[in-house]
């Protein structure tokens, strides 16, 4: 394991620590080591008094050394006290983690493959720029972006989690741009321990169950060490609500908030309006005629026509454009809201996970071990992206036999033969997406020490083979070409049939979308039982060797060095169904018969048009790290310089250098330390960016500025093998105060950081592609989309380039105080606080004519200006109490907007005008407690979001990466250890 190892005997000599993160009080360290450990370090799991300290963030091994990069540690007591069904949630609460995913994120998605994926994002730069390790080793990705799924980690044996807040590419390689999250397991656990937990929300949903068991022991004179664990967890999730604005199980905070584009740029009023209870004028639950002489005629479930109730006292203009007088473009306020579909998105994905883990280690000599680790895990998730399968912009013939006679007569009287139509397709039911991720991971390694040239050297060598299999299946979703043929019905020889003879010959069944009574045959025709699927296999092979020691004693202490080399090979292959991927791209499949109605090239599904693909790359790299002690005296304190360099050779893009240089200075002032580090970090393009199987996403309400209307668009995302690594510059400088003699138990730290990333791999957003063409800023983008495609579906092609840059700046504050025997009571009282302030987060697309955007404080994104976590806990030998507060500041919809109500300046793409740009923040309070039934058995309870705080405005303003959507959650359980 790559680590900084410190003998226990040196604990009392360590410089003061940066504060640890704790969610309940811990018993104090033993005498002689009462000060918190350096940089949050904890004793190596299970080693007891003879153990060492392992600190993530450096590859050096030297007594008394602390790395200059700030590191936060969460111990197993804190993890247990937070009582979450998934350790991911506990870690993601840290303020420096911004934009992490999880079971409440990506629930609107059908095609991303990231539903239910739990992955970390440090500094808001994304999960792909945060390196997550298990015992200092890489884990094969659970998605083609390369990020692992924390739900697949062996959680009960995790002794602590180190969070390195800063670049670490020189030490750990690619992806460590935002930082590193390292899970450290207990490799010397002895005994049996377990956990049984259940939970439920205040609304009676998201029922949770968790069962965990771990065993371990040593044999053969304490030379053979075996640990194993197994756990099963299930969270029912929170499904979609009803059509309209009713969320699941009585949640009342959803108000269909919509950002309305008036489409007028210079009339003194704002272009964009934020409005609640918005209702589209382009569809209803069971169908609406949206333009022409019959505009405003809606249909109930039985297919009976009635006059639709527009909000805003809107009156249909009955023109070809579908204007509603008194309403905004595309939307009215209030009225009949029953057809809105957004409340149908799952608020939390259902998840079930089964993990097994085993490690066998044998000491071939004292302090020299051969080991084998095996992880096998499975995670299944499911979500509902939205209610219905919304289809605005349809054309129906008046002669369609499903059109009521009264409407046919009105057509004749008006002299029309067809009309524009939109429906939520409520009668078709709701789509479900199911994912199944399976991890198989084997590590064989050797670690230990040897003497050479009078120096003790630490070595670590391992081979890792990881494989992840991801299956995605989508149920109850329509084939768009078949739908289009099925709704075009005629009467022939007294029977209702599809108009197209070729479609009829291929089995077309006419579909009634007037109301909610489609035939079973029609449903099976447009939504076959075998829906979209994707089968992905990813593999990762790693060979790593590192060596560290202190070969020279200098004037201020030993010179410590570390060297190492690593080889890594990443591979993936994916295959999909022929209706999505294309018939030529897939072998014949009886479950997906060819059909002349369908597009041979694929993209036939309403959503979930997965593609076939494969790709691989290899990495060869070597690193060198050194720590040079500069000062060691009572008068001047202790100071050192730490540096590292790494050369990496990517098979796809060639060689690139990463480096860091920093140092710490323990001042001759009681408990005070300075630290600073600057680094050049890299992130290589991942498999998805290089070799992405073209992913197709449906954008059902895409705004077309050329025709000032919403259209259905297919977004095709494709790879780019010409990508090069991103290059980042990280700089951190801070000061810490730990355990001063004038107030033992106090720890404080302040760290300022800047992070600048250039050559950022990013895709131009579909809306930006269209706008850049529409405004003639980048005419080349006009060649990659068609929004009025008569030959097939409307489409936009999206591809990644090294165009953008990110420039972020801020600071972290951590504080803790442990009060032993408060007010003479037995036990200890602990205060903890962590905060991150994002001063700026500027993204430059690199496109001509565009202005960099600062998203710091944009609460639709990942970086609110302020985010903090505070904990107060008391514990003694019998019980413990915990109070935890989580808060982030109010923010904006977007910092680019100009807020005004009247006398507004001209609205531009760079500085659009808006009437309301504020999104409130959130403050959550959690309570918890434990009671020791015996010395081996502890009962516990936890209440999250005690005051049932609702999220901010929704839909477009609800960010589940920040806001809690579930409400109050109750959990209780029992832990045991023998």
TrEMBL record:
<dbReference type="InterPro" id="IPR039426">
    <property type="entry name" value="TonB-dep_rcpt-like"/>
</dbReference>
<dbReference type="GO" id="GO:0009279">
    <property type="term" value="C:cell outer membrane"/>
</dbReference>
<keyword id="KW-0798">TonB box</keyword>
<dbReference type="InterPro" id="IPR010917">
    <property type="entry name" value="TonB_rcpt_CS"/>
</dbReference>
<keyword id="KW-1134">Transmembrane beta strand</keyword>
<keyword id="KW-0812">Transmembrane</keyword>
<dbReference type="InterPro" id="IPR000531">
    <property type="entry name" value="Beta-barrel_TonB"/>
</dbReference>
<dbReference type="Pfam" id="PF07715">
    <property type="entry name" value="Plug"/>
</dbReference>
<feature type="domain" description="TonB-dependent receptor plug">
    <location>
        <begin position="67"/>
        <end position="180"/>
    </location>
</feature>
<keyword id="KW-0998">Cell outer membrane</keyword>
<feature type="region of interest" description="Disordered">
    <location>
        <begin position="15"/>
        <end position="50"/>
    </location>
</feature>
<dbReference type="InterPro" id="IPR012910">
    <property type="entry name" value="Plug_dom"/>
</dbReference>
<keyword id="KW-0675">Receptor</keyword>
<keyword id="KW-0472">Membrane</keyword>
<feature type="short sequence motif" description="TonB C-terminal box">
    <location>
        <begin position="961"/>
        <end position="978"/>
    </location>
</feature>
<dbReference type="InterPro" id="IPR037066">
    <property type="entry name" value="Plug_dom_sf"/>
</dbReference>
<comment type="similarity">
    <text>Belongs to the TonB-dependent receptor family.</text>
</comment>
<keyword id="KW-0732">Signal</keyword>
<dbReference type="InterPro" id="IPR036942">
    <property type="entry name" value="Beta-barrel_TonB_sf"/>
</dbReference>
<keyword id="KW-0813">Transport</keyword>
<feature type="domain" description="TonB-dependent receptor-like beta-barrel">
    <location>
        <begin position="420"/>
        <end position="946"/>
    </location>
</feature>
<protein>
    <submittedName>
        <fullName>TonB-dependent receptor</fullName>
    </submittedName>
</protein>
<dbReference type="Pfam" id="PF00593">
    <property type="entry name" value="TonB_dep_Rec_b-barrel"/>
</dbReference>
């Amino acid at each position: 394991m790559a680590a900084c190892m410190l003998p226990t005997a040196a604990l009392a000599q360590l410089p003061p620590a940066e504060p640890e993160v704790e969610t309940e009080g811990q018993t104090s360290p033993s005498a002689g080591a009462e000060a918190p450990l350096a940089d949050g370090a904890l004793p190596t799991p299970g080693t007891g008094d003879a153990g060492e300290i392992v600190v993530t963030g450096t590859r050096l091994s030297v007594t008394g050394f602390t790395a200059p990069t700030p590191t936060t540690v969460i111990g197993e007591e804190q993890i247990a006290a937070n009582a979450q069904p998934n350790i991911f949630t506990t870690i993601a609460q840290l303020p420096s983690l911004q934009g992490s995913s999880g079971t409440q994120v990506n629930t609107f998605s059908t095609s991303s493959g990231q539903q239910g994926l739990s992955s970390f994002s440090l500094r808001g730069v994304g999960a792909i720029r945060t390196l997550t390790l298990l015992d200092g080793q890489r884990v094969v990705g659970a998605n083609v972006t390369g990020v692992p799924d924390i739900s697949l980690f062996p959680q009960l044996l995790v002794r602590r989690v180190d969070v390195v807040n800063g670049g670490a590419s020189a030490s750990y390689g690619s992806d460590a741009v935002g930082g590193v999250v390292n899970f450290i397991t207990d490799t010397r656990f002895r005994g049996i321990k377990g956990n049984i937990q259940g939970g439920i929300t205040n609304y009676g949903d998201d029922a949770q169950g968790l069962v965990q068991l771990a065993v371990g022991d040593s044999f053969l004179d304490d030379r053979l060490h075996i640990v194993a664990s197994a756990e099963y967890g299930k969270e029912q999730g929170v499904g979609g609500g009803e059509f309209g604005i009713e969320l699941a199980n009585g949640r009342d905070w959803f108000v269909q908030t919509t950002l309305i584009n008036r489409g007028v740029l210079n009339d003194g009023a704002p272009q964009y309006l934020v409005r609640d209870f918005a209702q589209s004028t382009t569809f209803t639950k069971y169908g609406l005629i949206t333009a022409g002489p019959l505009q405003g005629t809606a249909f109930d479930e039985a297919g009976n026509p009635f006059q639709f109730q527009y909000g805003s006292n809107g009156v249909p203009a009955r023109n070809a454009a579908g204007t509603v007088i008194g309403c905004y473009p595309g939307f009215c306020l209030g009225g009949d809201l029953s057809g809105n579909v957004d409340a149908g998105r799952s608020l939390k994905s259902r998840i079930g996970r089964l993990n097994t883990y085993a490690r066998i280690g044998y000491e071939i000599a004292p302090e020299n071990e051969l080991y084998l680790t095996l992880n096998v895990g499975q995670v299944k998730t499911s979500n509902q992206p939205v209610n219905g399968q919304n289809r605005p912009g349809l054309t129906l013939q008046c002669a369609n036999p499903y059109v009521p006679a009264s409407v046919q007569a009105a057509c004749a009287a008006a002299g029309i033969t067809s009309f524009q139509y939109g429906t939520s397709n409520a009668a078709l039911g709701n789509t479900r997406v199911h994912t199944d991720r399976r991890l198989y991971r084997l590590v064989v390694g050797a670690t230990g020490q040897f003497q050479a040239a009078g120096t003790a050297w630490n070595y670590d060598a391992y081979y890792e083979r990881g494989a992840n299999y991801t299956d995605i299946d989508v149920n109850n979703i329509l084939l768009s070409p078949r739908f289009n043929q099925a709704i075009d019905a005629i009467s022939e020889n007294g029977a209702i049939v599809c108009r197209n003879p070729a479609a009829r010959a291929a089995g077309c069944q006419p579909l009634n979308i007037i109301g909610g009574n489609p035939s079973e045959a029609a449903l099976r025709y447009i939504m076959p039982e075998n829906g979209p699927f994707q089968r992905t296999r990813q593999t990762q092979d790693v060979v790593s060797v590192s060596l560290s020691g202190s070969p020279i004693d200098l004037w201020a202490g030993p010179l410590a060095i570390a060297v190492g080399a690593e080889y890594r090979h990443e591979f993936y292959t994916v295959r999909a169904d022929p209706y999505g991927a294309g018939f030529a791209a897939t072998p014949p499949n009886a479950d997906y018969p060819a059909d002349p109605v369908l597009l041979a090239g694929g993209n036939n599904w309403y959503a979930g048009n997965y593609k076939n693909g494969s790709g691989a790359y290899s990495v060869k790299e070597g690193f060198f790290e050194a720590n040079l002690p500069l000062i060691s005296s009572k008068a001047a304190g202790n100071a050192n310089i730490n540096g590292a360099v790494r050369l990496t050779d990517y098979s796809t893009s060639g060689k690139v250098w990463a480096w860091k240089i920093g140092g710490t200075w323990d001042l001759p002032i009681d408990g005070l330390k300075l630290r600073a580090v600057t680094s050049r970090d890299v992130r290589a393009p991942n498999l998805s960016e290089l070799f992405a199987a073209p992913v197709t996403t449906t954008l059902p309400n895409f705004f077309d500025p050329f025709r000032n209307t919403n259209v259905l668009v297919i977004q095709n995302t494709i790879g780019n093998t010409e990508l090069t690594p991103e290059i980042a510059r990280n700089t951190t400088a801070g000061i810490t105060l730990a355990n001063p003699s004038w107030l033992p138990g106090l720890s404080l730290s302040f760290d300022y950081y800047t992070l600048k990333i250039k050559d950022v791999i990013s895709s131009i957003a579909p809306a930006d592609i269209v706008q850049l063409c529409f405004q003639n800023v980048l005419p080349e983008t006009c060649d990659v989309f068609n929004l009025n495609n008569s030959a097939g579906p409307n489409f936009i092609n999206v591809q990644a380039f090294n165009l953008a840059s990110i420039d972020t700046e801020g600071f972290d504050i951590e504080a803790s105080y442990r009060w032993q025997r408060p007010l003479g009571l037995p036990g200890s009282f602990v205060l903890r606080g962590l905060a991150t302030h994002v001063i700026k987060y500027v993204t430059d697309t690199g496109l001509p004519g565009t202005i960099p955007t600062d998203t710091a404080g944009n609460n639709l994104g990942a970086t609110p200006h302020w985010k903090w976590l505070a904990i107060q806990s008391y514990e003694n030998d019998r019980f413990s109490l915990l109070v935890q507060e989580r808060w982030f500041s109010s923010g904006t919809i977007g910092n680019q907007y100009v807020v005004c109500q009247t006398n507004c300046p001209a609205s531009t793409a760079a500085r659009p005008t808006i009437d309301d740009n504020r999104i409130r923040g959130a403050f959550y309070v959690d309570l918890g407690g434990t009671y020791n039934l015996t010395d081996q058995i502890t009962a516990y309870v936890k209440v999250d979001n005690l005051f049932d705080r609702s999220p901010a405005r929704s839909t477009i303003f609800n960010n589940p990466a920040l806001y809690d959507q579930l409400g109050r959650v109750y959990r209780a359980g029992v832990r045991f250890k023998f």
